Amino acid sequence: MTVLLWRSEPDERRLSPGDTGPRGRGEGHERRFVNDALIFLQARQLGASVLTGNVRDFDFLSQIVPSARVILYRVPL
Question: How far apart (Å, rounded) are the C-alpha atoms in residues 43 and 37?
Fold first, then answer.
């Protein structure tokens, strides 16, 4: 099994009260979502799995393209 690893700093995902856009998110999140989609599609093309803690975005993507392999995890609080 091939796994693509992508590390995202937790602070990059924080939103400020002034953020706007789809589902209350700002343009920054849209750009990060496009990057996530590119990682997701590239892994699918390579036949690799994506290991990520970004459950919200990658769960959404895997519902759209169920043939891609994604390993989701959550860090205990």
Answer: 10
Q: Check residues 6 and 33 and name the one with the higher pLDDT.
A: 33
- What angle, rounded to 10 degrees, do the helices at 55-64 and 27-46 form? 50
Q: How far is CA 58 from CA 17, 33, 50, in A?
A: 24, 9, 9
Which residues are within 8 A (CB) of 35 and not within 5 positions of it... i.e. 6 or more apart? none
Predicted confidence at residue 14, as pLDDT, reads 46
Which of 5, 3, 63, 54 minimizes the C-alpha distance to 29? 54
pTM above 0.90, yes or no: no
Task: Give me the residue spans of the domains in the chain.
Answer: 25-77
Task: Return d(Cα 36, Cα 44) in angstroms, integer.
Answer: 12
